Amino acid sequence: MGAEKPNSTSVLQHIEAGLNVLNQLCIGFVTFWICWNCLRVGLTGIRLHVWLVSFGFVFLMAESMMCFYNANWLTLRYTRKRKTAIHVVLQLLGGGMGVAGCLVQLIRDDWSISVTVHARLGFAAFILCLVALLSGISAVLARSLSRIVSPLANKTFHVILSLGTFVTAMLAQFYGYTQTGIFKGQGQDFVIFMQVVTLIAMVLTCIAPFKSLYHKYVSFTS
After folding, report:
1. Residues 6+ apart with CB under 8 A from 143
2. Are 170 and 198 in contact (CB under 8 A)?
3. What is the dihedral of CA 171, 177, 181, 183, to 10 degrees?
4. For 65-99, b where at least 16 C-beta lie within 10 A, e where not — what string?
5. Could you tell me which residues come within 8 angstroms of residue 135 by beta carbon, excluding any fewer than 6 positions away?
6. Cα→Cα distances 221→14, 39, 155, Å
7. How many CB atoms are closer than 10 A to CB 31?
8. Transmembrane stretches, by residue range (predicted)?
9. Are 197 and 30 in contact (CB under 8 A)?
10. Quick one: which of 3, 49, 125, 194 has the most CB atoms within 10 Å?
11. What's the pLDDT at 1?
């Protein structure tokens, strides 16, 4: 019985590593295709919005959320301090681009929000992202603020907010493929394929923050 535990752990680690590779492929494909599709025509009109939110949320924010994930081969060999630095930079850039993309579209629409699911989710992601960025600053200063709030509670709140922002943004991306009209002419099958790949990337990226929340829950209860 004692020999089975390390073996099962090793199998789980290999599965997680394989899923991480699949996730990186999904993120890379969505990011590359959208960037190419927008840049080849020009970042004018709605394409600037699409490029900013896609590169910001789908790529940069997803990568920032996986910085501390042990199965992430991109950051596996880095120290905790370096991972933190990469996480902060990626989240600031990703969140900044996402917020900028939402602002671009709000300005184009004269600060009105359409009734589509994509628009409502996008606006929700915009608000959540602003709050998540502020909570990120609080998480970085967790030790300095320890007299006001415990570092564990501070960082847990940040993880939950970031997770909520990412999931909301990815769902907005999912509906955006069909509700913005920018991808007309690509073919229905390809649009569905993009939606499936986006959902896979969302689910697999969420493994890292859910594991982080689980470990924080164990720390809370122990």
Report:
1. 151
2. yes
3. 160
4. bbbbbebbeebeeeeeeebeebbbebbebbbebbb
5. 154, 157, 158, 161, 162
6. 29, 50, 16
7. 19
8. 21-43, 49-72, 84-107, 119-145, 157-178, 190-210
9. yes
10. 125
11. 45
The tens digit of pLDDT for each residue in 161-174 reads 999 999 999 999 99
pTM over cut 0.85? yes
User: At 164, which amino acid appears?
Assistant: G
Give the tens place of pLDDT for each residue, 38-82. Answer: 999 889 889 999 999 999 999 999 999 999 998 898 998 999 999
Reported residue count of the chain is 222
CA distances from residue 25 to 29, 44, 60, 65, 140 in whole angstroms, order as listed? 6, 28, 14, 16, 30
Exposed, middle or buried: residue 184 (CB in 10 Å: 0-12, 13-18, 19+)? exposed
Alpha-carbon distance of 139 to 200, in angstroms, equals 28
Tokens at residue 6, please?
């390390």
